[in-house]
Amino acid sequence: MIQLRFLSGPDVDGLGITHGEVIAAVEAVVDAHGRGRTVFEPRTHLVPDNGGAGHFNVLRGHVGTLGEHGVSGVKVVGDFVPNYQRGLPSELALMTLYDPTTGVPLVIMDATLITEVRTGAMTAVGAKYLARPDSRILGHVGARGTAFANVTMLDSLFPLEEIRVTSRRPESREAFAARLREVTSTPVRAVATADEAFDDADILVEASRLEEPTPLLRTSKVKRGAFVVPYGTVSAVELDLLDVMDKVVVDDWRESRSGRFGALRPHVDSGRLSQKTLYAEIGEIVSGRKPGRESPDERILFWHRGLSILDVALAHLILTRAEAADTGTMLRYR
After folding, report:
1. 130 and 251 inside one domain
2. Which of 191, 200, 194 is nearest to 238 (CA)?
3. Contacts of 97 (CB under 8 A, 6+ apart)
4. Based on the number of CB atoms within 10 Å of its own CB, is 252 exposed (0-12), middle (13-18) or buried (19 or more)?
5. Strand 227-230 relative to strand 55-63: parallel, antiparallel, unpaired?
């Protein structure tokens, strides 16, 4: 008989995984990627005939540094922007892990939390190596999904003096700001526009949920020494943004070139972002093969689309903790 563990959303939440643990796990797997200890394929998309309500992302990866023989995994995550109208998260995800030596499935888990925190952790890891350590002002566009982890994880790493947040709907940005004030002593200000959020900011994060391309992160708002993270599904930046950057870093170049979505998709398609103009993959920097920030005046952009290996690493962390706590439901597989 083969059994596998099922972990519901409440099961995962009850494990009390901390942001520090998430960041550490993500940094470790990025380092493994930089050293060639991971295997993955760029995400694929399934776009149903649903009138444009949303689509699915399918991510597959293997991390050789986890466990005795490594671990493999697959995540399917929906991206349905109008879900807030139904009281649902815009991103709902399911994750499975497998023994890479036998193919035996190990766990099925609600991966919604993984999707939310792994993106914020990747932003934080990128900032650790690429942002000015004395960064004081964070400007953040977007208030749902990954936004909370983005802001709170960055707040834990930098001596921030102000956090500015905005989103399309006033009630959304005000609620987001109120939620942040509950967990941080850093002043949080909800502003009406992206320009206000990004004005003179040291760290600029564009995590919008657009349906059509709209230039929210304007090139003129990027000051010397700024660290810029645009990763919305639909482009919200101007085409000349890369012209002012001293370094452009991605999570993985193959991932950057794949699919039809992504913040810098027009830049890749037009040739403005290519293997020649790219400075590095973040794994090269974390593993020490290339330097990160070398000058306080550098403008550095980090585009991460979301690597499947992050999901695998965090799912393995959750599974290990669940096994130790005997949490979840054991299901008969065959």
Report:
1. yes
2. 194
3. 71, 72, 73, 105, 106, 107, 312, 315, 316, 319
4. buried
5. unpaired
pTM given for the model: 0.90
Stretches where the chain sits below pLDDT 70 are: 210-214, 232-236, 258-264, 266-269
Does residue 218 share a domain with residue 317? no
What's the rounded Cα separation, in Å, for the pair 39 and 61?
Answer: 6
pLDDT, residue 212, reads 66
Report pLDDT for 323: 97
pLDDT tens by residue, 65-84: 998 899 999 999 998 888 88
- For residue 240 the two structure tokens come to 């000349």
Residues 80 and 150 placed together within one structural domain of the fold: no
Number of domains in the chain: 2
| Closest to 81 in 3D by CA, of 176, 211, 232, 193 | 211
pLDDT tens across 105-140, in order? 999 999 988 988 998 999 999 999 999 999 999 999
Do residues 138 and 201 lie in contact, with contact meaning Cβ atoms separated by under 8 Å?
Answer: yes
Range of the domain at 194: 117-306
Q: What is the pLDDT of residue 201?
A: 97
Q: Are 217 and 205 in contact (CB under 8 A)?
A: no
CATH code for the domain of 313 = 3.30.1780.10
177 and 110 in a common domain: no
Amino acid identity, residue 26?
Answer: V
User: How many residues does this entry show for the chain?
Assistant: 334
Q: In the 8-state DSSP scheme, what is residue 215? A: -
Task: Quote the CA–CA distance of 201 and 224 in Å, as a whole number.
Answer: 10
According to the model, what pLDDT value does residue 52 have? 85
The amino acid that residue 117 corresponds to is V
pLDDT at 273: 78
Shared domain check, 245 and 175: yes
Which residues sit opposite 302 in a β-bridge?
249
Distance in angstroms (rounded) separating the CA atoms of residues 78 and 9: 16
> What are the structure tokens assigned to 47, written together?
């776009």
